[in-house]
Amino acid sequence: MxxxxxxxxxxxxxxxxxxxxxxxEAAAAMKGLLAKGVKLVIVSxxxxxxxxxxxxxxxxxxxxxxxxxxxxxRGAYNYRFEDGKPVVFADRIPGRxxxxxxxxxxxxxHRELLASYGLETDVVFCRPNYCxxxxxxxxxxxxxxxxQESEIESLKAILDAHGIKGGLGELLEIAGKVGRxxxxxxxxxxxxxxLEVGISDKSDNTNIIxxxxxKHFQIKGEECCFWGxxxxxxxxxxxxxxxxxxxxxxxxxxxxxxxxxNGKRPENVQQIGGGVxxxxxxxxxxxxx
Length: 289
Description:
An 8-stranded mixed beta sheet has the order 5-4-3-2-1-10-13-14, with helices on both faces. The chain has helices at about 25-35, 60-65, 95-115, 150-160, 165-180, 200-215, 275-289, and strands at about 5-10, 40-45, 70, 75-80, 85-90, 120-125, 130-135, 185-190, 195-200, 225-230, 235, 240, 255, 270. The protein has about 290 residues and is of the alpha/beta class. The longest helix is centred in the middle third of the chain and has 22 residues, at about 95-115. It is globular, with a radius of gyration of 19 Å. It is built from 7 helices and 14 strands.
Protein backbone atom coordinates (compact mmCIF):
# COMPACT_ATOMS: atom_id res chain seq x y z
CA MET A 1 0.00 0.00 0.00
CA UNK A 2 1.04 3.60 -0.64
CA UNK A 3 3.17 5.28 2.03
CA UNK A 4 1.31 8.24 3.54
CA UNK A 5 2.64 11.39 5.16
CA UNK A 6 -0.56 11.98 7.10
CA UNK A 7 -3.20 9.57 8.43
CA UNK A 8 -6.57 10.92 9.58
CA UNK A 9 -8.84 8.51 11.46
CA UNK A 10 -11.94 8.26 13.60
CA UNK A 11 -11.45 6.96 17.15
CA UNK A 12 -14.25 4.74 18.47
CA UNK A 13 -15.23 2.09 15.94
CA UNK A 14 -12.01 2.55 13.98
CA UNK A 15 -8.98 2.75 16.32
CA UNK A 16 -10.74 1.28 19.38
CA UNK A 17 -13.94 -0.71 19.70
CA UNK A 18 -15.53 1.83 22.05
CA UNK A 19 -14.60 4.99 23.93
CA UNK A 20 -14.14 3.08 27.16
CA UNK A 21 -12.14 0.25 25.62
CA UNK A 22 -8.41 0.02 26.47
CA UNK A 23 -6.29 2.25 24.25
CA UNK A 24 -2.98 0.43 24.69
CA GLU A 25 -3.09 -1.47 21.39
CA ALA A 26 -4.01 1.60 19.36
CA ALA A 27 -1.36 3.70 21.09
CA ALA A 28 1.30 1.04 20.55
CA ALA A 29 0.50 0.93 16.83
CA MET A 30 0.58 4.73 16.58
CA LYS A 31 3.84 5.10 18.47
CA GLY A 32 6.11 3.77 15.74
CA LEU A 33 4.73 6.06 13.06
CA LEU A 34 4.87 9.12 15.31
CA ALA A 35 8.51 8.34 16.06
CA LYS A 36 9.15 8.45 12.30
CA GLY A 37 7.45 11.81 11.95
CA VAL A 38 4.28 10.62 10.23
CA LYS A 39 1.41 12.96 11.11
CA LEU A 40 -1.48 11.18 12.82
CA VAL A 41 -4.79 12.98 13.18
CA ILE A 42 -7.70 11.71 15.28
CA VAL A 43 -10.99 13.17 14.01
CA SER A 44 -13.87 12.34 16.35
CA UNK A 45 -17.16 13.78 17.48
CA UNK A 46 -16.24 13.23 21.12
CA UNK A 47 -14.11 15.37 23.45
CA UNK A 48 -10.58 14.90 24.76
CA UNK A 49 -11.57 13.24 28.03
CA UNK A 50 -13.16 10.40 26.03
CA UNK A 51 -9.99 9.65 24.07
CA UNK A 52 -7.94 7.12 26.06
CA UNK A 53 -9.62 8.33 29.24
CA UNK A 54 -8.28 11.84 28.69
CA UNK A 55 -4.71 10.59 29.09
CA UNK A 56 -3.64 10.06 25.50
CA UNK A 57 -0.46 12.10 25.93
CA UNK A 58 0.80 9.67 28.57
CA UNK A 59 1.35 6.97 25.94
CA UNK A 60 3.92 8.97 23.96
CA UNK A 61 7.12 10.95 24.34
CA UNK A 62 7.17 14.71 23.86
CA UNK A 63 8.94 14.19 20.54
CA UNK A 64 6.30 11.75 19.31
CA UNK A 65 3.48 14.06 20.37
CA UNK A 66 4.82 16.77 18.06
CA UNK A 67 3.34 14.76 15.18
CA UNK A 68 -0.08 14.05 16.72
CA UNK A 69 -3.20 16.17 16.19
CA UNK A 70 -6.82 15.84 17.24
CA UNK A 71 -9.94 17.36 15.71
CA UNK A 72 -12.72 16.82 18.23
CA UNK A 73 -16.23 17.79 19.25
CA ARG A 74 -17.75 17.81 15.78
CA GLY A 75 -15.62 20.75 14.67
CA ALA A 76 -15.43 22.43 18.07
CA TYR A 77 -11.82 21.77 19.13
CA ASN A 78 -8.52 21.29 17.29
CA TYR A 79 -5.49 20.16 19.30
CA ARG A 80 -1.77 19.89 18.88
CA PHE A 81 0.77 19.16 21.59
CA GLU A 82 3.22 21.62 23.10
CA ASP A 83 5.80 20.44 25.63
CA GLY A 84 3.88 17.16 25.85
CA LYS A 85 0.53 18.78 26.72
CA PRO A 86 -2.62 19.10 24.57
CA VAL A 87 -3.28 22.66 23.42
CA VAL A 88 -6.32 23.92 21.52
CA PHE A 89 -4.92 25.93 18.60
CA ALA A 90 -8.27 26.58 16.87
CA ASP A 91 -11.88 26.26 17.98
CA ARG A 92 -15.49 26.98 17.04
CA ILE A 93 -16.91 27.74 20.48
CA PRO A 94 -19.69 30.32 20.66
CA GLY A 95 -20.30 32.60 23.62
CA ARG A 96 -23.18 32.06 26.02
CA UNK A 97 -25.72 33.75 23.77
CA UNK A 98 -24.54 31.69 20.82
CA UNK A 99 -24.86 28.39 22.67
CA UNK A 100 -28.31 29.37 23.95
CA UNK A 101 -29.30 30.09 20.36
CA UNK A 102 -28.22 26.56 19.40
CA UNK A 103 -30.14 25.15 22.38
CA UNK A 104 -33.27 27.07 21.39
CA UNK A 105 -33.03 25.76 17.84
CA UNK A 106 -32.51 22.15 19.01
CA UNK A 107 -35.52 22.39 21.30
CA UNK A 108 -37.43 23.95 18.42
CA UNK A 109 -36.65 20.90 16.27
CA HIS A 110 -37.72 18.61 19.12
CA ARG A 111 -40.95 20.56 19.47
CA GLU A 112 -41.63 20.61 15.71
CA LEU A 113 -41.17 16.84 15.45
CA LEU A 114 -43.57 16.25 18.34
CA ALA A 115 -46.19 18.87 17.44
CA SER A 116 -46.35 18.23 13.70
CA TYR A 117 -45.46 14.54 13.46
CA GLY A 118 -46.03 13.01 16.90
CA LEU A 119 -42.39 11.91 16.99
CA GLU A 120 -40.98 11.89 20.52
CA THR A 121 -37.29 12.66 20.90
CA ASP A 122 -34.79 13.40 23.65
CA VAL A 123 -32.30 16.28 23.43
CA VAL A 124 -28.76 16.26 24.84
CA PHE A 125 -27.77 19.88 25.39
CA CYS A 126 -24.38 19.62 27.11
CA ARG A 127 -22.17 19.74 24.02
CA PRO A 128 -19.69 22.51 23.11
CA ASN A 129 -21.37 23.91 19.99
CA TYR A 130 -24.15 21.51 19.04
CA CYS A 131 -26.95 19.38 20.46
CA UNK A 132 -27.82 15.73 19.97
CA UNK A 133 -31.42 14.82 19.26
CA UNK A 134 -32.12 11.16 20.03
CA UNK A 135 -34.50 9.87 17.37
CA UNK A 136 -34.67 6.41 18.95
CA UNK A 137 -35.00 7.29 22.62
CA UNK A 138 -36.12 3.77 23.49
CA UNK A 139 -33.00 2.17 21.99
CA UNK A 140 -29.77 2.05 24.03
CA UNK A 141 -26.45 1.45 22.27
CA UNK A 142 -24.66 0.70 25.51
CA UNK A 143 -20.90 0.95 24.95
CA UNK A 144 -21.23 0.53 21.16
CA UNK A 145 -21.64 4.22 20.39
CA UNK A 146 -21.09 3.92 16.66
CA UNK A 147 -23.85 3.24 14.16
CA GLN A 148 -25.41 -0.24 14.10
CA GLU A 149 -26.61 -1.65 10.76
CA SER A 150 -30.14 -2.37 12.04
CA GLU A 151 -30.59 1.28 13.02
CA ILE A 152 -30.75 2.51 9.43
CA GLU A 153 -33.88 0.52 8.61
CA SER A 154 -35.34 1.25 12.04
CA LEU A 155 -34.98 5.00 11.47
CA LYS A 156 -36.61 4.80 8.05
CA ALA A 157 -39.55 2.90 9.56
CA ILE A 158 -39.91 5.40 12.42
CA LEU A 159 -39.88 8.42 10.11
CA ASP A 160 -42.37 6.83 7.72
CA ALA A 161 -44.71 5.84 10.56
CA HIS A 162 -44.77 9.46 11.74
CA GLY A 163 -45.52 10.91 8.33
CA ILE A 164 -42.02 12.04 7.39
CA LYS A 165 -42.32 10.38 4.01
CA GLY A 166 -39.25 12.07 2.61
CA GLY A 167 -37.08 10.16 5.04
CA LEU A 168 -33.83 11.51 6.37
CA GLY A 169 -33.64 14.15 3.65
CA GLU A 170 -36.92 15.63 4.83
CA LEU A 171 -35.76 15.40 8.46
CA LEU A 172 -32.64 17.41 7.64
CA GLU A 173 -34.79 19.95 5.80
CA ILE A 174 -36.96 20.32 8.91
CA ALA A 175 -33.84 20.85 11.04
CA GLY A 176 -32.52 23.46 8.63
CA LYS A 177 -35.83 25.30 8.46
CA VAL A 178 -36.18 25.46 12.24
CA GLY A 179 -32.54 26.50 12.62
CA ARG A 180 -33.04 29.45 10.27
CA UNK A 181 -36.08 30.44 12.31
CA UNK A 182 -33.64 30.92 15.20
CA UNK A 183 -31.03 32.66 13.07
CA UNK A 184 -28.70 29.67 12.59
CA UNK A 185 -27.54 27.95 9.41
CA UNK A 186 -27.50 24.50 10.96
CA UNK A 187 -24.86 21.93 10.12
CA UNK A 188 -26.99 18.84 10.68
CA UNK A 189 -25.68 15.28 10.53
CA UNK A 190 -27.25 11.95 11.42
CA UNK A 191 -25.93 8.49 12.27
CA UNK A 192 -29.45 6.98 12.33
CA UNK A 193 -30.01 7.13 16.09
CA UNK A 194 -28.85 10.71 16.64
CA LEU A 195 -29.56 13.89 14.73
CA GLU A 196 -26.75 16.29 15.62
CA VAL A 197 -27.32 19.99 14.99
CA GLY A 198 -24.87 22.83 15.48
CA ILE A 199 -22.51 25.28 13.81
CA SER A 200 -19.69 22.95 12.71
CA ASP A 201 -18.90 19.32 11.86
CA LYS A 202 -15.96 17.03 11.06
CA SER A 203 -15.27 18.92 7.84
CA ASP A 204 -14.21 21.92 9.93
CA ASN A 205 -11.75 19.82 11.95
CA THR A 206 -10.39 18.23 8.80
CA ASN A 207 -9.90 21.48 6.89
CA ILE A 208 -8.25 23.26 9.81
CA ILE A 209 -5.77 20.46 10.48
CA UNK A 210 -4.93 19.75 6.83
CA UNK A 211 -4.28 23.48 6.61
CA UNK A 212 -1.84 23.20 9.51
CA UNK A 213 -0.05 20.28 7.88
CA UNK A 214 0.27 22.10 4.59
CA LYS A 215 1.43 25.34 6.23
CA HIS A 216 4.07 23.82 8.50
CA PHE A 217 5.07 20.59 6.70
CA GLN A 218 3.96 21.11 3.07
CA ILE A 219 1.73 18.03 3.32
CA LYS A 220 -1.25 18.07 0.98
CA GLY A 221 -4.52 16.15 1.02
CA GLU A 222 -3.40 13.77 -1.72
CA GLU A 223 -0.50 12.66 0.48
CA CYS A 224 -2.89 11.60 3.25
CA CYS A 225 -5.41 8.85 3.90
CA PHE A 226 -8.63 8.98 5.88
CA TRP A 227 -10.10 6.07 7.85
CA GLY A 228 -13.47 5.63 9.52
CA UNK A 229 -16.39 3.31 10.12
CA UNK A 230 -19.30 5.65 9.35
CA UNK A 231 -19.15 6.49 5.65
CA UNK A 232 -22.18 4.43 4.62
CA UNK A 233 -25.15 6.20 3.07
CA UNK A 234 -28.27 6.45 5.18
CA UNK A 235 -30.17 7.55 2.09
CA UNK A 236 -29.27 8.57 -1.44
CA UNK A 237 -26.73 11.38 -1.19
CA UNK A 238 -26.73 11.44 2.63
CA UNK A 239 -23.73 9.73 4.17
CA UNK A 240 -22.38 9.01 7.64
CA UNK A 241 -20.31 11.34 9.81
CA UNK A 242 -16.92 10.18 8.54
CA UNK A 243 -17.87 11.29 5.03
CA UNK A 244 -17.39 14.85 6.27
CA UNK A 245 -13.64 14.24 6.15
CA UNK A 246 -14.08 14.44 2.37
CA UNK A 247 -13.64 18.14 1.59
CA UNK A 248 -12.27 20.25 -1.25
CA UNK A 249 -8.91 20.18 0.51
CA UNK A 250 -8.83 16.41 1.03
CA UNK A 251 -10.81 14.89 -1.86
CA UNK A 252 -7.65 13.79 -3.68
CA UNK A 253 -6.62 11.67 -0.69
CA UNK A 254 -7.49 8.01 -0.12
CA UNK A 255 -10.52 7.07 1.98
CA UNK A 256 -11.10 3.71 3.66
CA UNK A 257 -14.12 2.32 5.53
CA UNK A 258 -13.53 -0.50 8.03
CA UNK A 259 -17.26 -1.05 8.62
CA UNK A 260 -19.02 -4.17 7.35
CA UNK A 261 -22.40 -2.40 7.22
CA ASN A 262 -23.97 -2.86 3.80
CA GLY A 263 -24.87 0.20 1.78
CA LYS A 264 -23.62 2.82 -0.63
CA ARG A 265 -20.56 4.91 0.16
CA PRO A 266 -19.25 8.11 -1.45
CA GLU A 267 -17.62 7.09 -4.72
CA ASN A 268 -14.06 7.74 -3.54
CA VAL A 269 -14.40 5.58 -0.40
CA GLN A 270 -13.09 2.02 -0.43
CA GLN A 271 -14.97 -0.37 1.86
CA ILE A 272 -12.41 -2.82 3.17
CA GLY A 273 -14.15 -3.94 6.38
CA GLY A 274 -12.28 -5.64 9.17
CA GLY A 275 -13.08 -3.10 11.87
CA VAL A 276 -10.50 -2.00 14.42
CA UNK A 277 -8.22 -4.95 13.69
CA UNK A 278 -7.92 -3.98 10.03
CA UNK A 279 -7.08 -0.36 10.80
CA UNK A 280 -4.41 -1.25 13.35
CA UNK A 281 -2.92 -3.73 10.88
CA UNK A 282 -2.67 -0.91 8.34
CA UNK A 283 -0.90 1.33 10.88
CA UNK A 284 1.65 -1.40 11.55
CA UNK A 285 2.14 -1.95 7.80
CA UNK A 286 2.87 1.74 7.34
CA UNK A 287 5.53 1.63 10.04
CA UNK A 288 7.26 -1.27 8.31
CA UNK A 289 7.44 0.50 4.95
